[in-house]
Amino acid sequence: MTGARPASNPAAVPALEIADLAKSVPGRQLFAGLTLAVQPGEVVAIMGESGVGKSTLLNIVAGLDTPDAGRIRIGGSDLAGLDDDGRTRLRRRAIGFVFQAFHILPHLSLVRNVALPLALGGGDGQAEAAAMLARVGLGGREAARPAELSGGELQRVAIARALVHRPSLILADEPTGNLDHETADRILALLIGESRDHGAAAIIVTHSERAAAQCDRVLRLGAGGLAPANG
Amino acid sequence: MAEPLLPARPALWLVLGEWRAQPLRVAAAVFAIAVGVALGFAVHLVNQAALASFAGAVHSVAGSADLQIEARTPQGFAESLYPRIAHVPGVAVASPVVEVAATSGQIRRPGSGGTASGRLTLIGLDPFRAVAVTPALVGVRPGRDGAAIDGVYFSAAALAATGARVGGPVTLAAGGRVWETRVAGRLAGVGRAVAVTDIATAQWRLGQLGRLQRLDVRLAQGADPAEVTARLRALLPDDADIATPAGEEARSDSLSRAYRVNLGMLAMVALLTGGFLVFSVQSLAVARRRPQFALLRVLGLRQGALARLVVGEGLALGIAGSILGLGFGYGLAAAAIDLVGGDLGGGYFGGARPVLAVTPGAGLAFAGLGIGVAVIASLLPGREAARARPAVALKSGADGDAGARPRAWPGLALLAAGGLAALAPPIAGLPIAGYAAMALLLAGGVAVMPALARVLLAPWQAMRAPVPVELALRRLWGAPRGAAVALCGIVASTSLMVAMAVMVASFRGSVDDWLGQVLPSDVYLHLEGVETAGLDPAAQARLAATPGVARIRFQRSIAIRLAADRPDVQLSAQPVGATGPVQLPRVGASATPPPGEVPVWVSEAMVWLYDARPGTRLTLPLGGRKVPVFVAGVWRDYARQFGAIAMADEDFTRLTGDATRSDAAVDVAPGADPRRIAAALTARLPPALAGQALVARPAEMRAVALQLFDRSFAITYALEIVSILIGLVGVAATFSGQTLARAREFGMLRHIGVTRGQVLAMLASEGALLGLVGGIAGISLGLVMAQVLIHVVNPQSFHWTMDVSLPWGLLAGLFAALVVAAAGTAVIAGRRALSADAVRAVRDDW
Questions:
Q1: Does the interface predicted TM-score (ipTM) exceed 0.85?
Q2: Alpha helices, DSSP H, located in B214-289
Q3: Where would a tag sit more exposed on chain A, N or C end, judged by fewer CB atoms within 10 A?
Q4: Domains in chain A, start-ordered, CATH in brackets?
């Protein structure tokens, strides 16, 4: 099933194309026949019951897990044709991740945490990282340690890290799950705004109707695949 | 642009970040490598310095001789050989030498302390010949020119050994003769305790008229050494052989080779234990950082690059440890030479004064070993880090161990390979395969631990236990890899410790038993410096007639050379009963000599070195000819590593014409006081021999022998203690690392109502259980490894066997200490982990 809302720019190469995707875990089928296309700049929310396979779907899209069947193309590159190193390189170039649990390396300063995706590619990235930190409201705190930050601030750092290398696709797994409503709203607005500003597509897995309402499309994941949340 | 194998910048950030966060554990790993490298480097430096010093001392005596014609026995060869050798085409100069062991004053027992032992080598030279070959031995009195030897010239070591001074009187004794003379001058540049005089004087004073012990030969320019050697060999009598500088080097090298290699291997054991500590630290660091590594994979770090990052950390630890280790090693070597001498307690290089010299090659080699061990120890953790599935690791955090089923076959395969290696023969005379067997057994024992731990813990599963013990059991059962890392350190250090302890206890026990067997009499008399002549029959009769002496058995001991490149073998003539020598502890089967053949009984070393098994024949240089003898049996001898032969005293006298004796074993009559008998025997000695005699009772000799044994094992004990300490540091680091990494788990337990005391009880139970399982496994593995040391490494190194004796008290104490230390470390680390706020521990990201 495809999502409900039409793509914002039908002529462009989709940031993400999923066709006939199936995945099962021991004892049950998570989903089958899952199809989805996300255009650059489009923000899609995916909702569903716990254990339905939302995080697994994100992991498969990122090349961290393998599907039983189906095809995934990111910016036109078919994941099936890539080995582990190829998928890693694609992830480094084209994908940004935001997690519920932030996952900020505790022993690195903020600027180094944010610069990591660029540094892993062989660059320095600290100037870009400092600029990105400024964009998420943490300018001047480049040298701070993660232990000095609140949960909301840590998630801002995670968003900066997810965007610093200008990926074409942002994958966010419950990015506001650990935050209070007010902070969650601000973080989500930041994530969506920055994704759009960078022309990146974003898939946000969430349980929050409030968060989903801010996205361009809201889909619900079930055993039959994705369906519009209001349909 | 090609992608780097490991992006340098983030790698540096991550490694430095980890080091900042875990400084103590990093320091422990660096220290462990540093100690291993330091010990290996120090042993190497001291050995090299001692060998160089010993070689220098030999060279100063041999001079520029291209060849030496040496007597096979102390009696020397006929001097008529000299002119025939001197006229062989290709011989430029032949310098005749008389060389005998001599004493001055009353000799002192070995190990009794002080430098004035009273022992020296007396050399007689023809100065006009010697000046062309061994100029260092030609002493010149101040104010006199030319190559004349007037009086006796002493080396500095000889002056120290005798307490004599230049210009002063000195009394020399050798071969039952006494010579009162003056020290005419000093020999410069001669390291050994040597006194030199004119050859004619020496022959006259020492009863060596017509005899020579050596001819130093310098070849003519352009002469082919092989051709000249062949011509010389054709002229040699049965009691002389040709020695080359290379052969001399091989002989001096073989004197201490096995001891040096063993010390080196012990140092490597310490390094290996350090490697396990690095493995433990790295494994824990990988387990703790599993989600961090998963994040790096998500952000785009390739699998291979992640493995290289962990190995790179090991490399950095290795480099830091090795650099420190080289510095420590040099200091340690200098201190060791000061404290125990250049032979490191082995007793091989008496009189040598070593000077430390560092070669870049050796430094690089030991640094390479340290770095190699650290890198190898990081390979498995690196592989583990790279193989973790990022999605799972990010979700489950650092607890990704659950459900892993350990495999036993790699460990069993290594154990089997170790067993096979133990059966292999020595390589180049050294137990290389034996050491490989030890390493394989250790690796196999460690590798099999996760599976074995399940087997050992299985019986506890059904047991009903209090909550803390129950939690501890479930944790160990459910996280076999975590338990394996802790067990790895315990098993490695315990097994090495046990193997060494059992070997040393067995060796010491066997030596003690052996001393009891070879010293059955009440008083022993031993004469030194009597290689050429000892107690004559009249003196023997006088001693036998000493009141209170019930029975006296005389012996004659001389050194004979069976191979030019091997140390001398001791031949002793002694009373032989119907079944062979009466006092020798026999091992293995005997063979009955055919009628007319001369039977001999050989030490175990003779079987190893000369293949002298019972029933075979040897050729001995006796009485100026080669005498075939029949090997009738083998006996155990811990005194002479390079071989000893016993033969009947009447055979010896008949074959050599030498009826003098050098030793006596005395049984005193019932009621007689052995002390008085000893004094009476000394009083009845010929005056010329009195200063060369040592009289002792078995208890004294036993004490001295065991004191020498302990001295020679002092470095071994020290190296073993260091290995144990590194092993225990490893166990402590492992427990504290694992415990501190579980702060979140403890926080959760506190949230659900588990008391602080119960958490500590759980940790103590875990530690004790691991100590218990590790102790059982480590002691079992150590007992197996001890068998390799006792039955493979020792016989192949030192050519003697021993009976196994287990130090039960030590093993029990070790086991108890291990369990208590493991539990204690876990509790101490647990207190630290519990001191963190429980709320914060649960909330912490990672």
A1: no
A2: 225-235, 245-288
A3: C
A4: 41-64+82-228 (3.40.50.300)
